[in-house]
């Protein structure tokens, strides 16, 4: 049974049809990278899975249970944790206080402040620092740590590398690799296609709200993913988004 199964999902922003009849499943312990150009609908999909945006139609199931109409705070309790784009920490609270908020929102399980600091060792010295004083990488580590503190069955990560220095990105991904090896189920949005294909077992490529390509990273040629990313091979020069190659 899938850890997460999305079927026939449609999500709108007013008149804009951002996610179109989308189906996707993530197996327990699997790491799936969601890629696609700006505006493809990746963030909208993650927010709909987390319950932050109500879909127009379709179904979202967690470990076989339909959670489509469960409100977002109860989804955390059921085992879904979203690390949103932009991190959204409480700036005046310390790292530790931000982490503890994650535990309050979640459910009992193995994660503790000490365990988060083990996975993100650069946070240990910053434990009592206010979130607003942290570097971008430290903020991202805190945001991921806060999500882990809710003891999720599936972690949704939205563009963890956004705005970070290359060194900070490497650090965050080194910690994520540790989580991945320990069997955490992850669905992550990553703009850097090379990195996405290195860390994930499977890649799902979205274009204009739809899945246009998916497959195991071990067998998918990067060129095919790049083509799907830009809507090439769909007779779709018109689909080509105005962004630099990933
Ligand atoms: P990015 O990489 O830029 O974050 P994305 O693949 O995550 O892109 P979304 O942010 O989900 O894409 O956006 C999908 C579409 O929905 C885009 O056309 C975007 O302009 C639109 N959209 C997203 N959020 C809103 C909103 N709050 N109100 C109106 N339209 C929105």
Task: Give a concise summary.
The protein is an alpha/beta fold. The chain has 8 helices and 10 strands.
Overview of the molecule:
This protein has 246 residues and is of the alpha/beta class. 32% of the residues lie in helices and 25% in strands. The protein has eight helices and ten strands. The chain has helices spanning 42-50, 72-78, 95-105, 113-119, 136-148, 166-181, 193-199, 222-230; strands at residues 4-13, 16-26, 31-35, 57-62, 65-66, 80-83, 154-158, 185-189, 202-207, 210-216. The model is unreliable at 235-245 (pLDDT under 50). The site of adenosine-5'-triphosphate has 11 residues, from strand 2 and helix 1.
Topology:
Elements: E1 4-13, E2 16-26, E3 31-35, H1 42-50, E4 57-62, E5 65-66, H2 72-78, E6 80-83, H3 95-105, H4 113-119, H5 136-148, E7 154-158, H6 166-181, E8 185-189, H7 193-199, E9 202-207, E10 210-216, H8 222-230
Parallel strand pairs: 3-8, 3-9, 6-7, 7-8
Antiparallel strand pairs: 1-2, 1-4, 4-5, 9-10
Helix pairs in contact: 3-5, 5-6
Bound molecules: adenosine-5'-triphosphate (ATP).
Adenosine-5'-triphosphate binds next to strand 2 and helix 1.
Proportion of beta-strand residues: 15-25%
CATH top level of the domain at 4-85 and 151-230 is Alpha Beta
CATH domain topology of the domain at 4-85 and 151-230: Rossmann fold
Structural Rg: 18 Å
Q: Quick check: average pLDDT?
A: 90
